[in-house]
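Input/output pair, single chain:
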Amino acid sequence: MTFAVILLVLLVVACAVGSFVKQGQTFDWYAASYSETAAAWIMALRLNDTFHSWWFIAITAFLCGNLLLCNVFRLGTLIRRTKSFGDAGNAAKRAADASVSGVSDPESVFAALRMPKPQQSETDGIKILYSSKHRIGLWGAWVCHIGILLLILGFGLGQMTKQEYSVYGVPGQTRPIGDTGLFLSINDFRIDLRDDDTVEQYTADVTVWRVPQGSTTEPDEQRAVISVNHPGRMFGMTFYQNATGWAAKVDVTKSGEPLQSEIVCAGEYLPIADKKELVVYFNAFYPDYALVPGEGPKTVSGRLNRPAYLYSVYYLGELLGMNALTQGETITIDDYEVSFSEPQNYTLIQIKRDAFTSVAFAGGVVTMIGLLLAFYILPQSVWAMPAEDGTWTVYAESKKRRAMLRDELERAVSATKLKITGETDAQG
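Output:
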């Protein structure tokens, strides 16, 4: 048990580190975000890929093995305890948790304790009335351990094998989903506002499709409407409405003639069509632009009152200039003119495929069942044996809440005596 607790603590710490340290980044990224020393430790300990590291897999394997062996070793004993708990023949040999002597009507005590109707048995010439209930509660801890084992397996294997992709764009655009061979088309995206102009919900209507290889048939497609906290499920993957941002239409002319027109999201580069070494970068969008002295450009509201576009221009990787354009203004670079227009929100869809989600879900369900069995299904047995004076001694046993059981037995016997006394007085 001590070893299991140590392993569980290590696993929790590992998961916390894996959640805190951004995964999949380079040494330079970690050095810039933390320090070179921290980056060196992150790379050496494989904290940049925690859930695929050998030590995370080792901790998970040891913990799963520990839990499995504990349950295997306890299974035989648990089966014997369960059989013994329901066996009247062993009652006379067991040590009771509580007992009361001088009972004249033991069956009334059984009823007062809400026990099933007692069965008569005889062991070594001794007559016994025996009843038991909730024996399944003995399995609470065992079932709970199985649930925890499934949870760890589901989470650990899921983290080691899961696939994640991100797709973003505006309505009308189609983007590939990584290397899956699938494509995501954004049919619609809307932002619902409350009366005070705060965001209530983000909702995207998307279609995911693929064309079978070597086939001329129509694409195989599935459609879903997804929003925050309401993901969609298509092609064995889960689609989440993750984020949003601003996009704009960028028009480029050369010597007054249209050259290209594309939708560009904030944070994207646009190489000039016939001069790839010349690149326009869309830094940010300001719906209600204001240039505040000492603070720089900012938006004073979320409404499209005075839209402005922050851009940078690069040539052969060198920064030529950076500025903000308001609606209708253009950038002039030699023979080229660049303008921004039609601001709109884009949606960012997070896509995950985890083959072990169902295992983790089953583990959670089994763990909850185990906790219910352990804390709310209380095993209890009651038996009565005759004494030489013609009365009975009632015994009670419970694997849990022994002190409460003693009080309940005494109250049940007292209530029975009062009832018998009252009936005798009434007859008299």
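Helices lie at 2-20, 27-33, 36-44, 54-85, 106-112, 140-161, 357-375, 402-427. The first strand starts at residue 98 and ends at 103.
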